[in-house]
Automatic annotation (TrEMBL):
CDD domains to which the protein is assigned, alphabetical: C2_ArfGAP
Keywords per UniProt: Abscisic acid signaling pathway, Calcium, Cell membrane, GTPase activation, Lipid-binding, Membrane, Metal-binding, Nucleus
Organism: Escallonia herrerae
UniProt-recorded name of the protein: C2 domain-containing protein
Ranges where the C2 domain occurs: 1-103
Gene3D superfamilies: C2 domain
Molecular function terms, GO-annotated: GTPase activator activity; lipid binding; metal ion binding
GO cellular component, one term: nucleus
Amino acid sequence: MGEPFGMLKVIVVQGKRLVVRDFKTSDPYVIVKLGDQRAKTKVINSCLNPVWNEEMTFPLSEPVGNLKLEVFDKDRFKADDKMGHAQLSLQPLVTAGRLRQIIGVATDGSTLRKVTPNSDNCLAVESSIDWVNGEVVQDVWLRLCEVESGDIELKLILTNNPVAPSRSQNVQK
């Protein structure tokens, strides 16, 4: 990995219409991966529409890869069940941040770029990348792959201040 050039805050906001993996419900949690860095949300018991609102911070370095997430159902006596996965290319976010830095012109609330669903991402709907309170922000809904249903809402915040990572942890899966 190259020299860190910024920080990426990932806020795992909520899940909607997640699949049932236990008898009538699931106990979901999310693992977020960026390169070899990983972080995990808490388990929300008996819920198919969980609200996490958990923030994770990752240092960014070249080359910028995809943000990947996996959703699992926590099980007590056997291996956790898969509830889907998704990925999002970070290149549009990083490009918008660099463009903003080079041009230096953007008023608070300005839209820097729009990202449409395509093969590089699992976007459920179009997403905009905005300049908010001095940060590059993208709100996204990701459609989970290889499952019957499920969407995850994330908020991504790109800052240009490289610092040590927080809440990132190695999770064995």
